[in-house]
Amino acid sequence: MVDMQPGSADTLVCFVLRPNRSASRRTLGLFYASLCSVSAGVAGGFASVGLWPVLPFAGLELLALGVALAWVARQAERAERVCVTGERVTIERRPPDGAAVSLPRLWAQVEFWRDARAWRPSRLVLASHGRRVEIGAFLTDAEREQLARALRGWVGSAAARH
What we know:
alpha+beta
C-alpha cells in the first residue's frame, strides 16, 4: 500500500510504503489462541484414553505455528518512508532494517523494470552516483509501477520543475 503525504515546511512530499496486511497482530493472536485451545482439547482427549504421545507432538505443532505467526506479524510491520526535500531524497526503513539512505534529489534516477520471466516481480530502484537502493519490495507490481511514475515527477531531471 502506498500513501502519499503532502510535505511540511522543508519536505515537498513523502511516500509511506507498507505491505498489505490481511490481519492485525491482535487478530493473529486471537486466531492462535483459538487454535491452541482446540488443539489442546483434542490432544487432551486422546491423552485421557491412554494415547499420551499425542501431547508432545501437539505441543511442537503449536510451537511451530506460533513461530510462523510471529514472523508473519513482524513482516507485516515493515514500512518504508520516501521523503523528497528540496535537496535530498531520503529513504527510511522500519524493522527489520532501520537504516536511512539519502540521495541528492536532482541526480537521483528512478529505475523500474520487469523481468522477462512473468513469474518474477518487478523492481523499483532509486540510484545516484553508483549507489542503488531498492524500495517497495513488498508492494505489488502495480503499486511499484504507480510509485515509479509518481517519483519520476519529484526526483531527477523532472524535479527541476517543482
